[in-house]
Design brief:
Layout lengths: L1 H6 L24 E4 L6 E6 L6 H17 L5 E2 L15 E4 L6 H19 L1
Antiparallel strand pairs: 1-2, 2-4, 3-4
Protein name: Serine palmitoyltransferase 1-like isoform X3
Length: 122
């Protein structure tokens, strides 16, 4: 999925499956960047450029989550203990890829996220 979000394609060749399919490349989703460790099945989508207001950033990302949910793609905003965090990370959408997801499911999710993000952010 990470590769799908970065290149909006899942044509990775034979032998590439599930959570390991997305480890390289840059985001081709206008306005979003992919952040996370390559060994983790979880990663985050952050705004490429903040609006300058954390609340507005959260609202934009929440709108992407809501519209994706309306289209059958389950996403969630990452949650942080804002008052307790010494270094509060930027708002993000948290995505987890499992080996049980099919290529078709991952492709649908990546395409949906890309289309929704373009609508919300442009």
């Amino acid at each position: 999925m990470r590769e799908a979000l970065r290149g909006v394609t899942l044509d990775l060749g034979p032998g590439v499956s599930g959570a390991s399919r997305a480890r390289t490349g840059e985001s081709s989703i206008s306005g979003l960047k992919v952040v996370g460790e390559s060994i983790s099945p979880a990663f985050h989508l952050q705004l490429e450029e903040s609006t300058g207001c954390r609340e507005r950033d959260v609202k934009l990302l929440q709108e992407i989550v809501t519209q994706c949910m309306d289209r059958g793609i389950a996403l969630t905003l990452a949650r942080y203990l804002e008052k307790e965090e010494k270094y509060l990370p930027p708002p993000s959408i948290r995505i987890v890829v499992t080996v049980e997801q099919t290529e078709e499911e991952l492709e649908k999710a990546a395409t949906t996220i890309s289309k929704v993000a373009q609508t919300v952010l442009l």
